[in-house]
Specification:
4 strands, mainly alpha, globular, 44% helix
């Protein structure tokens, strides 16, 4: 895959997350949130203002990669167990466990905490 194509895939996911944050919090403006450029240090979706960080207190790293395929198969397995919201917990040696949920579910949880 060409470097430009990789950058476009990454930018697509960053913009998707940024746009969902704007939908959830219409009071935020372009001065509050931006996506990073290629090679820039820090989070992929930058919450620039204190107001944005208070509303959405996450450090966002986006990975749009095909080598995440196995994680998706594990997540699909979790969806088959019941009608409950799937939650995948993963861990590797000497690392903290991670919880993986659907992006839309994350935003639903954020909506609930704001009310």
């Amino acid at each position: 895959m060409k470097n430009r194509s990789k950058q476009q895939k990454s930018r697509y996911l960053q913009n998707l997350v940024k746009d969902r944050i704007f939908e959830l919090y219409p009071s935020l403006t372009k001065k509050d949130i931006r996506t990073s450029t290629t090679g820039e240090n820090g989070a992929d979706v930058k919450l620039l203002t204190l107001a944005a960080r208070k509303l959405f207190p996450y450090s966002i790293e986006c990975k749009n990669r095909s080598d995440n395929k196995q994680i998706y198969s594990f997540y699909k397995q979790a969806t088959k167990h019941s009608n409950l919201e799937p939650l995948l917990v993963i861990k590797t040696k000497r690392e903290k466990p991670l919880a993986i949920i659907d992006l839309e579910h994350l935003f639903e949880l954020q909506e609930d905490t704001d009310q």
